[in-house]
């Protein structure tokens, strides 16, 4: 299994107890959708290795206490700390009509309600307090905040992402650069 065939489910935060259990954080919208997992892939030395789950207890805020098969000591569990957890893409929950996963819309044409076709989705950045879409627009990268009121729907048949951009966002990327007002004032003073 390769990383590009999977999605990042979360990561192991710390060990728990003395019998090889770990605390994992599932960095997904609905962690409860994954309460019955039988296995996950852990990234180790650049490769994804399957680990089988013998028990899993949900905790608060997307955390789970997990016991993996053949991990029986705190020392073994400690080697898993900060390890990323992955699942195959086909295990993503089904979405409602018009909804999408970020990886699904890479390469889609972005169509704005007011301005029509704009550019192409290049990638998404997942920053601590904000997610951003990177769009190729007029031969430059344009950043668009990921918000429900901006992203209307994805049309998978036509490979279009329909948006309603905030007023003024396009202008930030299209206005020609002009000399600073201070420079103009300085020229006037010299005369």
Automatic annotation (TrEMBL):
Residues 103-169 form the Ribosome maturation factor RimM PRC barrel domain. GO terms for molecular function: ribosome binding. One of its GO terms (cellular component) is ribosome. Gene3D superfamilies: PRC-barrel domain, RimM. It holds the Pfam family RimM. Its main location: cytoplasm. InterPro entries: PRC_barrel-like_sf, PRC_RimM, RimM, RimM_N, RimM_N_sf, Transl_B-barrel_sf. GO terms for biological process: ribosomal small subunit biogenesis; rRNA processing. Keywords: Chaperone, Cytoplasm, Ribosome biogenesis, rRNA processing. Residues 179-191 have a biased composition (Acidic residues). It is found in: Cytoplasm. Residues 9-89 form the RimM N-terminal domain. Residues 171-191 are annotated as: Disordered. Binds ribosomal protein uS19. The PRC barrel domain binds ribosomal protein uS19. Belongs to the RimM family. An accessory protein needed during the final step in the assembly of 30S ribosomal subunit, possibly for assembly of the head region. Essential for efficient processing of 16S rRNA. May be needed both before and after RbfA during the maturation of 16S rRNA. It has affinity for free ribosomal 30S subunits but not for 70S ribosomes. This is Ribosome maturation factor RimM. It comes from Pontibacter mucosus. The lineage of its organism: Bacteria, Pseudomonadati, Bacteroidota, Cytophagia, Cytophagales. The gene is rimM.
């Amino acid at each position: 299994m390769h990383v590009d065939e999977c999605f990042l489910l979360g990561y192991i935060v710390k060990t728990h107890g003395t019998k090889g259990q770990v605390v994992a954080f599932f960095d997904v919208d609905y962690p409860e959708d994954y309460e019955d997992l039988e296995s996950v892939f852990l990234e180790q030395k650049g490769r994804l290795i399957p680990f089988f789950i013998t028990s899993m207890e949900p905790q608060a805020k997307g955390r789970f206490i997990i016991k993996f098969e053949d991990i029986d000591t705190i020392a073994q569990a400690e080697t898993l700390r900060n390890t990323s957890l992955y699942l195959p893409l086909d295990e993503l929950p089904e979405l409602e009509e018009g909804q999408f996963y970020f990886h699904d819309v890479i390469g889609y044409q972005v169509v704005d309600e007011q301005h029509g076709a704009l550019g192409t989705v290049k990638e998404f950045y997942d920053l601590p307090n904000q997610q951003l879409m990177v769009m190729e627009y007029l031969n430059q990268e344009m950043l668009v905040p990921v918000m429900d009121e901006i992203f209307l729907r994805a049309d998978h048949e036509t490979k279009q992402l329909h948006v309603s951009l905030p007023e003024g966002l396009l202008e930030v990327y299209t206005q020609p650069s002009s000399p600073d007002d201070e420079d103009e004032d300085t020229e006037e003073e010299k005369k």
